[in-house]
Design a protein that fits this description.
There is one protein chain. The chain has no helices and 5 strands. The chain is mainly beta. The chain has a domain of about 30 residues. It has a 5-stranded antiparallel sheet with strand order 4-3-2-1-5, with no helix packed on it. A hairpin with a 4-residue loop joins strand 2 and strand 3. The two termini are about 15 Å apart.
Length: about 55
């Protein structure tokens, strides 16, 4: 289950932080780190390759 502020790796290779969750995970708003800066975009569950877990929680 993806939670708000989780770091995820997208299938296109970019990393993002989930900033909002819509309809219990049907879609997300994410801040995506790209070469030219951070982009806030809608992300679907199929766009996410994995959730990045840090050792600190």
């Amino acid at each position: 289950m993806i939670k708000q502020y989780d770091k995820v790796k997208l299938k296109d290779g970019y990393y993002a932080f989930i900033v909002e969750i819509f309809n219990d995970g049907e879609a997300y708003m994410a801040d995506i780190d790209k070469e030219d800066g951070t982009h806030t975009e809608h992300v679907l569950p199929d766009d996410i390759a994995e959730v990045i877990k840090d050792d600190i929680e």
